[in-house]
Amino acid sequence: KFNPLFAGMIKNHGKTILSKQSIHFLTCCRVNGLLQYYYKIIGGTIWLHRKVAPMACPDRRKSHMKLTFLGTSHGVPAADRYCQSILAQTENGGYIIDAGAPVFDCLLRQNVDINKIRAVFITHMHGDHVDCLFGLIGIACWYYTDMRFDVFLPEQKGIDAVTAFLEATLGDPALFPNDRVRLRLMKEGEVYQDGEMKVTAFPTGHLRAQGRPAYGYLLESGGKRVYISGDLNGETIDYPAFLEEEPVDAFVVECAHFPAERLAERLLSCKAEKVLPVHVWPLDKYDILKQAESTLPFPMAYPADGDSYVI
């Protein structure tokens, strides 16, 4: 029979119990997503039954990753595209990959909570991927002083350049260096883990001829996996081999340093749920990639500046 402990549960589910009427009423409710309770009113008496229900599906809204493309152009900006920058967001954090676009301005226009920015990852030290990093760090040092984030740069000379720029523009050692904006040297392998996002760096041969490092990044959060290629070697299209062995939810790949036909051929063995080309040049490569879609085992999307995708 009805246990008074469940009265609040029934009330909270919006049920009105007419115990003085002789009625038959069948319904159900879920407690903590695990147990299912069936109660029936017969002749004014409440009978309660319980059985174990299948495990409830998790609320996917709490485990998604959102990608917002702040800049999608190739080596130079266009009238409708900034140079490359991508914002990855989880429920409690924001993570920036490359800073070719005016990052801080874009964050404000996207209504992003800037105090949730936790880290910035630069793929390589070319200006179309790093030029606007200086402004982001500078304004965080002297004005938006609640911001706290790590900045991962692939070369020590990049760290030295940022340091020199901030010393020259801020002019106050009390503003930088500080413990809120932390400059770190990138390395291969797992480089970041904050309990909500894990980032692993994979080297590319984009600057091999110059003997300089470049990286792509695997982002993992809430069971979601996204790989961002950075710039690749023009001869080998050298994104990591694991993309042909392990599935990812999204693969953001550049298409400026090799023919689009070769990229489409290479992608045939890629295990991605979705592929998003960026950094595309010349622009007729978009048409070539769209024509190749029917041969590929996954859908493709073509981000423009300001576009967001929930992964």
What can you see in these coordinates?
With 311 residues, the chain is α/β, with parallel strands linked by helices. Helix content is 19%, strand content 30%. The chain contains seven helices and 16 strands. It has helices at residues 7-12, 103-109, 127-130, 133-142, 156-170, 260-267, 285-292, and strands at residues 24-31, 35-42, 45-52, 66-71, 85-89, 94-97, 117-121, 149-153, 181-185, 189-193, 198-203, 215-221, 224-228, 250-255, 275-280, 308-310. The chain has a seven-stranded mixed β-sheet. Strands 10-11-12-13-14-15 form a six-stranded mixed β-sheet, with no helix packed on it. β5 and β6 form a beta hairpin. α4 crosses α5 (156-170). Residues 1-42 and 47-62 have low confidence and may be disordered.
Please give the share of residues in helix: 10-25%
Elements, N to C (H/E): HEEEEEEHEHHEHEEEEEEHEHE
So how many helices?
7
Strand order of the largest sheet: 9-8-7-6-5-4-16
Alpha-carbon distance between the termini? 46 Å
Reported for the largest beta sheet, the result is: 7 strands, mixed
Low-confidence stretches: 1-42, 47-62
**What is the count of β-strands?**
16
**Quick one: overall form?**
globular
Mean pLDDT: 86
Give the structural class.
alpha/beta
Strand content: 25-35%
In angstroms, what is the radius of gyration? Answer: 26 Å
Task: Compile the SSE list and pairings.
Elements: H1 7-12, E1 24-31, E2 35-42, E3 45-52, E4 66-71, E5 85-89, E6 94-97, H2 103-109, E7 117-121, H3 127-130, H4 133-142, E8 149-153, H5 156-170, E9 181-185, E10 189-193, E11 198-203, E12 215-221, E13 224-228, E14 250-255, H6 260-267, E15 275-280, H7 285-292, E16 308-310
Parallel strand pairs: 6-7, 7-8, 8-9, 13-14, 14-15
Antiparallel strand pairs: 1-2, 2-3, 4-5, 4-16, 5-6, 10-11, 11-12, 12-13
Helix pairs in contact: 4-5
